Amino acid sequence: MLVFLCVLLTGLRGALWDGVNAYGGVRLVGGESKCSGRVEVLHHERWGTVCDHGWDLREANIVCFELGCGLAESALPGAAFGEGSGEIWLRHFQCFGHETILAHCAVVLHRNSYCTHKNDAGVKCSGTLIMPTLILLSPHTVFATGESVRFSCSVLLGHHLSDVHLYKHGVSTPLVTQRPDQTQTRVDLTLSDLETSHQGSYSCRYRVETGFPYELLSSPPSNSINITVVELLTPHHWYNTSSDAPAGSVIKGHSFNITCSTSQQYPGGSFQLRLIRSNGTVRQSLPALTPSVTFTFPNAQSSNEGYYYCLYRVQLGGRTFVSRESQPLPIAIRDPDPVLSPMVISWLVSGLTFIVALIIIIIVAKVLCNKEKKPSELERETRSCVDNTYVALSINKL
Q1: How far apart are CA 245 and CA 251, in angstroms?
Q2: What is the pTM of this model?
Q3: Are 152 and 185 within 8 A, CB to CB?
């Protein structure tokens, strides 16, 4: 019961000294670097040691974080780095792991708080923050534009985590930032509304708060995870056939072809041509070895009539991606025109009738004209007699 009451008094910080306002910082002395050694604190501008009563990794972690030395690898009691001198400023205290500086840890009032410099506490820190681990929560690494990808950044310890960032390699600013609870050791990071520019390699970092002076330390980057972002554009399509066919039509028995084209391709892609007709749907595919693929129909029949749609399909990372269908391309199959159609025959008959009638009219008119100009027998004899007389008279005068 007495021990329990003593623990309840842990909120009385600074009972054995003047409190946080007199605290001037912490240092490590006697080690191989600034991140290992005997723990000493500055109090009223004088350095003193810390007693190893209650000294464990929780307290050692606070010191390492406060100095920006990463995490505590070991908490060493019994003057492992040599005995100090002067005052023993902290004799028995308890940290809970959420404190930012050693002065924020609670003092435990206990009868057995006698310490000498043989009890000076020491610590060995990692020197840098521990590298986090990035894992992919999404079940695949290939995504379509507009989708989301979920990562998880795991930290060995969650002490004083300020924030966690998701970085894309080559980009200096984080794409996602989360501010976790102090007790969290894993933070989920979601990158939404993916675009093709998001394709690449990702890693995470975390930052921790040091206590005195206040500072934010950034961890080394985590392992990398690559993602692929697929954007399938709607393909274009057109058709070609004989020049004598009306627009939107193909003459029955003639050949025609339909070409599907897209400006963006992926390995292993294919084009699919879909025909919707009155009695069902017909599909056929060709590998997209080039940006454009042509479907050939050598002998157009009525079964080829309908609406044609083109789409692009590809399989990446175990997923199938399909583009939007193109606009419908209507094609009608027409019977070939006969050699002499009824209309042409009608025109020919009308023309011949007109010509025959015209010839008859001309002949009749010519006959009538000749009949009017032909002289009678008496007129011919009289004209002959007069002519002979004229000729005879002319000879006699000679």
Answers
A1: 6
A2: 0.63
A3: no
